[in-house]
Amino acid sequence: MTGVVRLVATELLRLRSRRVSIVAAVVVLAAVALFQFGIRSEVAPSAAAQADAAQAYAAAQQQWQESHAANVADCVQQGGGTQEECESYDPAPTPEQYQVTPPPFDVVGQAGVTTAAYLAMFASFLAGASFIGAEYSTGSLANWLTFVPQRLKVFASKGIAVVLGSTVLGAVAVFATFGLTAAQVSNHGEPLVRLGHVAAAGGRAVALVALAGLAGYVIALVARHTVAAIAVPLAYGLVRAVLSAFTSDVDAPLAWLPPYLPELNLTAFLEHGTTYTQYRSVLADGSDYTEVEKHISFAHSGLYWLTLAVVSVVVGVLVFRRRDVT
To answer: Which residues contact 109 (CB under 8 A, 6 or more apart)?
Structure first.
């Protein structure tokens, strides 16, 4: 056990000294700072901005009152739906839409946590992939195995170092965003609505950042190249764009697939459950349809990511134990 701890400490030093890791961390922290500047006008709007927003809201409210009844009547007459459905198609404007009042903390806080999580996940994935990819390309991995021939220890120490480094980056990025956003909202005199809910989302976001680092490490280890690891999510994006036509309709061949897609499970884990929409054609030619809302639970997403993590580690171990790294 002591030997593994020493190896992890050595790998952490090597990970920290890599230029990619340093640049990725600096970029993420810079983005966190930019987010705070970006939301300043929202969480602490000036008196003039609030007056302009109130004027725009009043104008929109008046226009809606003048045209709403006619719009609903036209909708019903043209067969657009029942009275209630047509009413829902033309809702009244709300103060929140025009930012007459600052958004509640849970809205802006969740947006901040999500933004920081995605940025840190990308940075951790890149750092984890380049960490092992560079060792393949330079030959240092083969040299290291001459000093530490126990491949399982080498795999574990490098993987643990990547996960720990990713966790630290994720925690700093996410909770710096959380704390600074809370400070801005509080200083403006607004209540910290659902503070615990946003903090819990931050904790889940850190776990996702750690998994992203592990994913980058394992994919690059199996592919033997950093570029190959980066190409995997890009290739998935292209495949996903093609498959979207086969998953959007409830009667499509791949209508069962969305609950097993990474992006939906990422959102479900981060937001403690999520919903997605599919469509069902009402007419044979598909010119009219109804929306079908479906739910992905937090438990489902948690099991999904746990399963992927275990499978990834097992595959990585099996490949690394038998591979010639010279």
So the answer is: 178, 181, 182, 185, 195, 198
User: Could you give the 3-state DSSP secondary structure of residue 280?
Assistant: strand
Q: Is 295 exposed, middle or buried (0-12, 13-18, 19+ CB in 10 A)?
A: exposed
- Over the stretch 231-272, which tens digit does the pLDDT of each residue have? 999 999 999 888 888 888 888 888 899 999 999 999 999 999
Q: Are residues 163 and 91 in the same domain?
A: no
Mean pLDDT of 122-135: 92
Q: Are 261 and 248 in contact (CB under 8 A)?
A: no
- Identify whether residues 55 and 131 lie together within a single domain: no
- Count other Cβ atoms within 10 Å, centred on residue 1: 5
Task: Please compute the mean of the pLDDT values over residues 178-195 and round it to a whole number.
Answer: 90
Cα distance between the two ends of the chain:
28
Q: Could you tell me the pTM of the whole model?
A: 0.85
- Residue 77 and residue 186 in one domain: no
Question: Which H or E element spans position 295?
Answer: strand 289-296
Total tally of structural domains belonging to the chain: 2
**Of 14, 310, 22, 306, nearest in space to 161 by CA:** 14
Please give the residue range of the domain that contains residue 135.
2-44+102-322
Cβ(204)–Cβ(270) under 8 Å?
yes
